[in-house]
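queue> holo job accepted (Sampatrilat-Asp)
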Amino acid sequence: VLLSSGCFAQSDDEEAAQIWVDQYNQDVQGVYFDYVSADWTYNTNITDHNSQLANEKAAESAAFDNQKAIEANNWDWPNFQNESLKREFSKIADMGYAALSDEDFNNMTKLNSNMTTIYSTATVCNKPGDTNGTCYPLDPDLEEVMSSSRDWDELVWAWEGWRNESGRKMPDTYEQFAELLNKAAVINGYADNGEYWRSWYESADFRQICENLWLELKPLYQQLHAYVRSKLRDIYSGHTFPGTGHIPAHILGNMWAQSWLALEQEMRPYPNKTGLDVTDELIKQGYNNTGLFLLAEDFFVSLGMDPMVDNFWENSMIEKPTDGREVVCHASAWDFYNGIDFRIKQCTRVNTEWLITTHHEMGHIEYFMEYKHQPVQFRDGANPGFHEAIGDVIALSVSTPNHMESIGLLPEGADDPEVDMNFLMSEALKKIAFIPFGYLIDQWRWDLFGEEFDRNNYNGAWWDVRCRYQGISPPVTRSASGDFDAGAKYHVPANTPYIRYFVSYVLQYQFHKAMCDAANYVGPYHRCDVYKSNEAGDLLRAMMETGASRPWPEILEQMTGSRNMTAQPLIDYFQPLMDWLIEENADETLGWDETGCPVGSIVP
Ligand SMILES: CC(=O)N[C@@H](CC(=O)O)C(=O)NC[C@H](CC1(C(=O)N[C@@H](Cc2ccc(O)cc2)C(=O)O)CCCC1)C(=O)O
Ligand SMILES: [Zn+2]
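queue> job finished
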């Protein structure tokens, strides 16, 4: 209503809309609680019965979302004056997969849980040298082989066996699944599911923004790739590497070659100085799984955040059950949307990697708790990358030699430039190695949803991005259509988008820089530890409590002074290592044939 003063009064329409949405926020919490609870029960006890119950609750939740989207669209919310109310309505109206018919929705959740069950229960048998026919699950057995074995043939067995027992059983299911995701996206006005997923970043040129960030970071990745490839050629001198410069995918210390940290000892710049693996020390000091959680909690509390609530300790699953239950071991953090129930589910083991992962998962929990007062539709990361960056940015402080020394996990003398370089190398083996992997999964999925390739080339297109971006290639021939190696990565059958991790790896260094500056830290950012800093904590918490209530560029600007993602803080953080690598690689040929995979490695 335009008043004589020229101001807009909140139209009574908006007042009525506010009353409706307040009621919505009361009702939706119970519906989401029921759905999340059933999903939790299935994830911590995989049975057909629990899968069925979870699918039923998912359908009820979708029916509720569908109904509320219809009601919300009775208002002319695009013309609301109240920005926050308009944003809330736009999220309620964007109903996602709830747009599907009951039949399509039920089919979609069944296909999803079929693939998740295949992934979570797959095992690999006939291990070289075994005589007892034991079959091994991914977590912990196959992951242990991938990180600790240096036997080429044993690594091929785990690498190929896992893909054949998990991904290879999914492509036809995935094809039907993708069709349903696209069907929902089109009903909601998107071209395909990829466009729907990208819409969460509220940037028209989001794909281009990511491509530019990748190109900025590629030189750093290429230096690390050349250095690691040279060292691996020595370790596996009896084997030939492709003449194209690709690294065989199974010898990088990880089932997906997404982290090369397991190679830390062989890659250490100053081998006679300490590395940063504190696993032995953790075990020597008698740490158990709970001890890792308490370490993480202590850091978040030192920044002014809340400790874990009582029911967190009662209801979380922090280790693989020994009572015969089949569980989804893949770590995850859960918001039950009632403002009081928050849980972590993970098959923790006492080692450095799980110390960091526990910080990552608890970062999600702290974000849930910081924004629990927000309307339900704003209880999300400012964009999904923000959610992935919280735990990791804390881990940047925890991982420093100084911090590890201050909590007694590293011996005295961490303050040494050569230890520093060893530290930067271990960080690069985790973070720089990850960059192209974090980028490529959704490049492939977006193109699949966009029908840039069909079922006969699902695996051909997968290996195309793996070879081109990561500079790795399959150690054994793979089929472009019969195999489905993307399905051997949890997030594909689980349908968890992945570009959020690429975004997080850029954002977390922007956050780290901002927090170190707020803490009046002086020195190189890779040595900064914000432990117990009120200023750093206030800055981070002010960002977290806004949830998804405003567009993320505003929230990023409030915290870092920049409205854009920028790779510069990440590049600055690793600059000392980059200089060292350029020197070290003086005689190396950088890079690999970026037109695709080595000839013959992928067959029809
Ligand atoms: C109910 C629900 O699903 N909740 C979401 C959270 C939310 O959306 O609120 C959730 O818990 N997702 C699970 C996922 C687990 C992990 C993961 O999958 N990591 C990626 C990439 C990566 C690797 C290293 C790293 O340092 C950071 C990321 C991988 O392992 O490939 C495994 C251990 C680490 C994080 C997660 O926590 O992100
Ligand atoms: Zn996460």
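queue> The longest strand covers residues 332-335.
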